[in-house]
Amino acid sequence: MAKGDLETVGADAPAGGYVQLLTPDGDRVERVTGPDGTEYSVDFTDAEYRTLYRDLVTVRRLDAEATALQRQGELGIWASLLGQEAAQVGAGRAMRPQDMAFPTYREHGVLYTRGIDPIMPFGLFRGVNQGGWDPQEYKFNQYTIVIGAQTLHATGYAMGITMDGKTGSADGEAVIAFFGDGATSQGDVNEAFVWSGVYHAPIVFFCQNNQYAISEPLERQTRIPLYRRSSGFGFPGVRVDGNDVLATFAVTRAALDNARQGQGPTLIEAYTYRMGAHTSSDDPTRYRIASEVESWKVKDPISRLKAFLEKQQVGDAAFFAEVDEQAKAEAIALRERVLELQDPDPVTMFDHVYPHGSPEVDAQREAFQRYQATFEGSAH
Amino acid sequence: MTTMTYREAMREAIRQAMRADDRVFLMGEDVGRYGGCFGVSLGLLEEFGPDRIRDTPLSESAFVGAGIGAALGGLRPIVEIMTVNFSLLALDQILNNAATLRHMSGGQFGVPLVIRMTTGGGRQLAAQHSHSLEVWYAHIPGLRVVAPATVADARGMLATALADPDPVIVFEHGGLYNVSGEVPDPSPADLDRAAVRRPGRDVTLIGYGGTVPTALAAADLLAADGVDAEVIDLRTLRPLDDATLVASVSRTHHAVVVDEGWRTGSLAGEISARITEQAFYELDAPVGRVCSAEVPMPYAAQLEQAALPQPAAVRAAARQLVGVDG
Ligand SMILES: Cc1ncc(C[n+]2csc(CCOP(=O)(O)OP(=O)(O)O)c2C)c(N)n1
C-alpha cells in the first residue's frame, strides 16, 4: 500500500490534489497527509468494508427506484444522488449517533445512514404529506429547498450545543451542514462561515461539489477551489475525493471529532459529479457533453470499492450477488409502500399552519368544508 | 397578427429589446446555456453571447444588487429571478435600495432596472416556490409592478418597462407560459390602464396574471347560469387603475376579486377597499373575494388545487352576490 501527501496521490485529482484512500482502480492508499498536516486513514474490519459496500449499493438502488417511480408518474419530482453515493455514505457513516445533520434535498444517502426509514421522503416527493420525520430522534433535519438556508440553521444549532456545554470532549456533539457548489455563492452560506468562525462553532461544512448548479458549471461560482474559501473565514478547509467512500469517511470523521472536541469548524469539499439530471424536471444534455459524463464513469464510487473488496478477497461473487439481491428486495418493498401511500383529504391543507389552530385558519377550514359539501351528490 | 405562446412572447420581447438597445442585457440563474428555468431565454445566448445573456453565481441578492449598480452606470439590466419566493433573498436590494434611491438622492437619479420573476402555484412545486407575493411588491412606493396575463401583454409590457426610469417588477405566472395567444401588435404596451377582457352587465370579476384565465372560465360558467360577468385584468398592480374598476362596478353593481395571494393583507383587500371608498353607493352587495387558502402552498396536487382560487369558487361567490342562490 502506498503512502502519500496531496501531491503524490490521486492521479485523477484536480489541480491542488485531494485526499484519496482508494483509487478508481480499487487500490488502497494507506494514509494521506492533508494540507495542515492531518493524517487521514481508515482502519476498517472486513465486515465494516462489506457494510460500506452494502450501503453504497443500496442507496443507489433505492435512488434508481425513485427515478423510475417519478418517470412512471408516481412521484412529483425526484432529485437523484446518482454518482454522489460515496460522498453521502462516507459522511453519514462518519457521524456519531449524537451528531446532527442539516441536509439539502439530495441527501437521501445520508438519510439512509441515519437509520431513517427510506419511505420518509417519499411522502413529500409523491405529494401526499410533507414527508416529515422527527429531527431530534434521528439527528437528521428536514430537507431544505431554499439554497443555503440550512447552513445558518446548522450554525445556530452548533452555537446552541456549545451553550449547552456539549462540546469539548471525545463524546461531545457536532453538527454537519450539507450544501452544493452552487450554494457557496449565497450570502447565507458565507454568513454561516463568518458566524461559525467567530463563535468557533462545532460544525463541519460539507460541500458536495458535484460540478453543477442546475446548468451552471463550477466556474460560474468560483475562481479558486472551494475548500480554499475557508481560509478567509479563519478555519481549515480540505478537499476529498468524494467518490472515495473511505477518504470521505476519514476526512469527515476527523473534522467532526475536531469540532466536538472544541477545535471549531472545518470546510470539506467533496469533489464528485452529479451523474444524472439536477432533478427529474431537468434535461442535462442541454448544457453538458456526453464525454464529460463518460470521463466520470471510470471514477465510479461503487466499482472501485468492489474492485478493492475483490482484490483483498473480502467479498466474493456470492457476496456481491447477495447484496444486489437484498438492495433489489428493499427497492421493491419501497416501491410497493410508495404506491400504497394514500392521497390526502384536501381539508388537511389547513393542518399544521399553527400547532393549535387559529381563528383565521379554523374559519377558512369550516368555510372550505361547507363549500366542499355543496359538491356532494352533484354527480347525480 | 402572430400566434405564439406566452413564453415565446416574453422571449421575443427580450430579443427585440436587446437588438434595439446595446445597453439591455439579461442576467440570472441558468438563463444562458439552459435557456432559463422556464425556458424563456432559450436561444438568446446563441444570438447575444455570454456577456449579454449572463449566467450568474447563485445569489439573488447579488444579481439584483448588481443589477442596480449596472443600471446606475447607464445600462438597462433585465434581471430574472426564478420564483417570487427566491426574490425574498433580494428583498433588501429591491425595497431598501432600488425603490428608494430616487427619493433618497433628492431626485438626482433613479434605478432603471427590470426584474422578472415567476409567480404562482398549480405546478406542484410546494411551499417554497409557489406563492403569490405580488402584493408585497405592490405595497412599495417607488416601484412599478406589472403582471402580464395575456400573450399580447407578455410581448408588449417589457419594452415599456425598460423605458421606465424607475424599477419595474414583472410577474410571470408559471401557469401561463404554455398558453398560446395572438399578438396583434408588438409595439410597447400601455401600462397605465386595466383592461376589460370580457364585457358583461351583472357582476365584475377582477383578476390579474394567473387569475385572469380563472375569472374568464368562471364567467363562462356564470353565463350558463344566466349571469353576465364582466372580467377586468388589472395588468398593472402598482399603480392601480381605479377608474376602470369604478366604471365597471358602476355598471354591474357587483364585484368579486380573484387573487392568488392569501386573503389577509391581499391585493383583493386593497381593491375591495378602493371600490368601497369610491363606489360604495353603486354596490348592491359587499365586494366578494376569492383568494388562496391561508396555508403554506401544499405540495400534494389535489391539496394545491383546493388551496388555489378555482373557477367554481368564483362562480359560487358571484352567484351569491347577484342573488342567484337566493
Ligand atoms: C434561494 C434559491 N434560489 C434558487 C433556487 C433554485 N435552485 C434549486 S437547486 C439550484 C442549484 C443548486 O446547486 P448546488 O448548490 O450546486 O446543489 P446541487 O443541486 O448541485 O446538489 C437552484 C438554483 C433555490 N432552490 N433557492
From TrEMBL, chain A:
This protein's UniProt keywords: Oxidoreductase, Pyruvate, Thiamine pyrophosphate
Domain Dehydrogenase E1 component positions: 57-330
Cofactor(s) this protein requires: thiamine diphosphate
Record keyword Transferase present: no
A Gene Ontology molecular function term of the record: oxidoreductase activity, acting on the aldehyde or oxo group of donors, disulfide as acceptor
Gene Ontology BP, a term: branched-chain amino acid catabolic process
Pfam families hit by this protein: E1_dh
InterPro entries: Alpha-ketoacid_DH_E1_comp (IPR050771), DH_E1 (IPR001017), PdhA/BkdA (IPR017596), THDP-binding (IPR029061)
PANTHER family assigned: 2-OXOISOVALERATE DEHYDROGENASE SUBUNIT ALPHA, MITOCHONDRIAL
Name the record gives this protein: Pyruvate dehydrogenase E1 component subunit alpha
Underlying gene: pdhA_1
TrEMBL record, chain B:
InterPro entries linked: THDP-binding (IPR029061), Transketo_C/PFOR_II (IPR009014), Transketolase-like_Pyr-bd (IPR005475), Transketolase_C (IPR033248)
Entry keyword annotation includes Oxidoreductase: yes
Any one GO molecular function term: magnesium ion binding
Cofactor: thiamine diphosphate
Transketolase-like pyrimidine-binding domain residues: 4-179
CDD domains per record: TPP_PYR_E1-PDHc-beta_like
Pfam family name, one: Transketolase_C
UniProt KW keywords: Oxidoreductase, Thiamine pyrophosphate
Alphabetical list of PANTHER family matching this protein: PYRUVATE DEHYDROGENASE E1 COMPONENT BETA SUBUNIT, PYRUVATE DEHYDROGENASE E1 COMPONENT SUBUNIT BETA
Protein name: Transketolase-like pyrimidine-binding domain-containing protein
